[in-house]
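Hi support team,

I've been running sequence recovery on a batch of backbones for a student project. Most finish fine, but this one hangs at about 90% for roughly twenty minutes before it completes. I'm not sure whether the input is malformed or the queue is just slow. I've pasted the structure tokens below so you can try to reproduce it. Let me know if you need the job ID as well.

Thanks,
M.K.
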């Protein structure tokens, strides 16, 4: 028996959220669409591990509530929990005053996507800690969580706060929903929320959260790619793929860096991040499977850029312009050091990547489970901890060095 993609998504929705849950696929996909033929590759439907992760995190919520006592000293200041903005619970995008900073003349806002087809390589960890390190230096940073697993969102907000305050009206899903529903009142800046992280000075760290049901947007975006003529197909392709870019452009001058945390796949939502980006950072573990994914990712990016720019050339709408996302570098993470060098088993893979055409960051991030671990009561990125021991200071230094390196490249 074959199951259509729509039915599959509905089943996944029910399995994830239960029939009565407000975020079910049933509600996201109107009934009349259920017979629609969906173009687009079936392989882009999120894979099982992704679904299981989201499901497991839902399950684990009960335990999260009881974990509060496990807090250690090196944690988020007590004010963090109560400092999550409260006024946003009943906000409606478009109605609320935006919290985005004013435009600073002369700002060259840079958009960086952190991506890898491979899961668990540290994309979210790198994004969160890099953002915090840059904000601590006085930079205005906007984080965008594009992963339906919501790991980045839950690195800054407690899950229950996310659910109560943001899940309905203040996530990146609203941005894609507005596109699908042709709602022109939604502006990206009204989706920006403030995790109020303890950063002294002028730095700003804002965020657009993700949504567990972003998984459903994928198939709806695919349906928007269809067209009855070549011209219509081309225009629809450009419209869908530039959706995030159009929103991000509207924030020009308000942030120094926009950092986008991508899901571990190259789905349509991920491609909207690529087209919005000036740079790509590809964290990877120096092992066989993780480094294999780099070639795959690179080919996908090249194909996307080639197709997008070819369509731009044929399109007379000045709204669409060429894209040129540069691979800033492969960033080795979870590196095990021995006598100051990566262990031999990892060095081989590092050398293999260096021999290829990709740029590789000089800085590598060591494996340190204690430092990078977080608990539900302490969701903030490790680099924001108030005090660290000498061993962990090395880890902080690596992130700081990475921030320096990246700033050097984007500000030159
Ligand atoms: N340098 C490191 N040392 C120790 N643990 C790390 C390090 N980097 C990441 N981790 C841990 O590895 C796990 C996966 O990291 P993370 O969630 O950032 O990966 P990811 O690539 O974003 O995963 P996904 O593809 O599922 O989004 C997390 O538990 C994180 O705390
Ligand atoms: Mg992640």
């Amino acid at each position: 028996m074959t199951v259509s993609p729509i039915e599959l998504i509905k089943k996944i929705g029910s399995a994830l959220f239960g029939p009565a849950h407000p975020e079910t696929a049933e509600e996201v996909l109107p009934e009349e669409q259920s017979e629609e033929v969906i173009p687009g590759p079936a392989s882009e439907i999120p894979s099982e591990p992704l679904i299981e992760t989201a499901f497991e995190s839902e399950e684990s919520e009960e335990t999260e509530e009881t974990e509060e006592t496990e807090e250690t000293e090196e944690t988020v200041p007590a004010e963090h929990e109560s400092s999550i903005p409260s006024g946003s619970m009943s906000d409606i995008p478009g109605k609320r005053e935006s919290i985005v900073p004013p435009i600073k003349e002369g700002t060259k806002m840079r958009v960086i996507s952190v991506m890898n087809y491979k899961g668990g390589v540290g994309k979210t960890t790198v994004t969160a800690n890099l953002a915090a390190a840059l904000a601590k230096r006085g930079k205005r940073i906007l984080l965008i969580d594009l992963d339906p697993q919501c790991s980045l969102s839950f690195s800054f907000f407690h899950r229950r706060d996310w659910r109560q305050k943001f899940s309905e009206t203040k996530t990146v899903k609203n941005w894609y929903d507005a596109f699908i529903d042709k709602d022109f009142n939604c502006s990206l800046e009204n989706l920006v929320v403030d995790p109020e992280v303890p950063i002294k000075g002028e730095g700003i760290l804002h965020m657009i959260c993700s949504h567990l049901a972003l998984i459903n947007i994928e198939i709806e975006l695919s349906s928007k790619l269809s067209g009855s003529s070549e011209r219509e197909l081309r225009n629809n392709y450009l419209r869908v793929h530039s959706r995030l870019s159009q929103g991000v452009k509207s924030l020009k001058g308000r942030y120094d860096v926009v950092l986008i945390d991508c899901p571990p796949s190259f789905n349509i939502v991920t491609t909207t991040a690529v087209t919005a980006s000036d740079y790509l950072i590809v964290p990877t573990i120096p092992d066989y499977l993780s480094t294999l994914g780099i070639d795959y990712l690179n080919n996908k990016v090249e194909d996307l850029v080639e197709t997008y720019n070819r369509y731009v050339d044929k399109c007379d709408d000045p709204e669409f312009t060429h894209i040129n996302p540069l691979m800033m570098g492969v960033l080795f993470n979870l590196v095990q050091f021995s006598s100051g060098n990566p262990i031999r088993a990892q060095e081989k893979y590092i050398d293999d990547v260096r021999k290829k055409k990709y740029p590789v960051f000089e800085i590598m991030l060591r494996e340190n489970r204690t430092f990078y671990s977080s608990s539900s009561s302490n969701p903030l990125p490790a680099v924001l901890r108030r005090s660290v021991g000498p061993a962990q200071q090395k880890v902080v230094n690596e992130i700081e060095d990475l921030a320096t390196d990246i700033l050097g490249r984007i500000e030159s």
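--
Follow-up from support: It reproduced on our side and the slowdown came from queue contention, not your input. The longest strand covers residues 326-332. No action needed from you.
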